[in-house]
């Protein structure tokens, strides 16, 4: 039996601005998103019966229709009239409900993989548009790389890779719901907004210090207030010498950008003192 493998990397938001709340309940955003090399892995294999079966080595995620990879398989099957079944094994490495788009990336990987397994010959644009039906971050996860995401996050413009660096991820032991965070955001009362042109300039000049200065995420106004432990992790990373520090997405994961390898071990060890889940990864360029 043919087996298809797909990697589903985590994303971080180098910049996340919210412009306004829309009538459909979503928020109009401007985000610079990029992938890091912490990834889930999906293994897909045809089943002799017309059924979607999902398994994982972890017990704390749903394996039924609530799972975004399951939803992706169901959507592509129904839309293209595929009368074949699939067994998907999900090797989960990305922390869940962390602001790292783990579920969205799994859905994107399932779309890419099933397109190959079932020889559907769908274009990248078609896969992205299917992805948009599953979640705002899924089109970016289908495409990967670095992008400016606008609309509710589904409209993508490619952006050059940021200068390569180390990324230290620290996830406090709390789960944050994206819907909750957007729900509590007072989009009209935001006092400051991160500057998108500044971040785009920093990337196009490949200036690591400028990228660090241009980091910004308006969702911190909600999550940092409600979860002091996230602010503590930010402060700790700054104290330990990370060059740039920001919460990713709706949180609670905080990432630190570090250019010099010799600083990484000190920051990692310092964080491990009070946060169990710390990862040292690279940006995917
Ligand atoms: C905040 C971000 C930043 O990348 O990521 P995460 O923190 O979830 O990783 C995204 O905007 C999350 O995208 P995603 O997780 O795909 O969101 P969706 O499933 O589409 O929406 C979940 C809920 O979030 C709210 N939502 C989402 C996107 C958006 N632009 N405005 C919103 O108000 C809506 O209430 C929606 O019901
Ligand atoms: N494949 C999946 N991996 C992880 N969580 C999933 C998946 N499919 C659905 N979920 C559900 O989606 C929610 C958000 O998960 P996740 O995508 O990891 O968060 P975030 O969008 O903050 O990065 C969780 O509550 C989880 O139960």
| Gross morphology | globular
N-to-C terminal Cα separation, in Å?
33 Å
- For the record, what CATH class of the largest domain applies? Alpha Beta
Integer count of domains: 2
Helix percent band: 25-40%
Gyration radius, rounded: 19 Å
Task: Return the average pLDDT rounded to an integer.
Answer: 97
Stretches with pLDDT under 50, minimum 5 residues: none
Could you spell the SSE succession in H and E letters?
Answer: EEEHEHHHEEEHHHEHHEEHE
Which ligands does the model contain, each kind named once? 4-diphosphocytidyl-2-C-methyl-D-erythritol 2-phosphate, adenosine-5'-diphosphate
Q: Could you say what the CATH topology of the largest domain is called?
A: Ribosomal Protein S5, domain 2
Oligomer: single chain
Q: Which class best fits the helix and strand makeup? A: alpha+beta
In words, what does this structure look like?
Pathway: Isoprenoid biosynthesis; isopentenyl diphosphate biosynthesis via DXP pathway; isopentenyl diphosphate from 1-deoxy-D-xylulose 5-phosphate: step 3/6. Catalyzes the phosphorylation of the position 2 hydroxy group of 4-diphosphocytidyl-2C-methyl-D-erythritol. ATP binds at residues 95-105. Belongs to the GHMP kinase family. IspE subfamily. Its EC number is 2.7.1.148. 45% of the residues are buried. The model has no long low-confidence stretch (mean pLDDT 97). The protein has ten helices and eleven strands. It folds into two domains: 3-158, Ribosomal Protein S5, domain 2, CATH 3.30.230; 166-282, GHMP kinase, C-terminal domain (Alpha-Beta Plaits, 2-Layer Sandwich). The strands form two sheets. Strands 1, 2, 3, 4, 5, 6 and 8 form a seven-stranded mixed β-sheet that branches. It has a four-stranded antiparallel β-sheet with strand order 9-10-7-11. It is globular, with a radius of gyration of 19 Å. A hairpin with a 6-residue loop joins strand 9 (244-247) and strand 10. By secondary structure, it is α+β, with helices and mostly antiparallel strands. Bound molecules: 4-diphosphocytidyl-2-C-methyl-D-erythritol 2-phosphate and adenosine-5'-diphosphate (ADP). 4-diphosphocytidyl-2-C-methyl-D-erythritol 2-phosphate binds at residues 13, 16, 25-27, 29, 31, 99, 101, 104, 135-137, 152-153, 178-179, 182, 249-250.
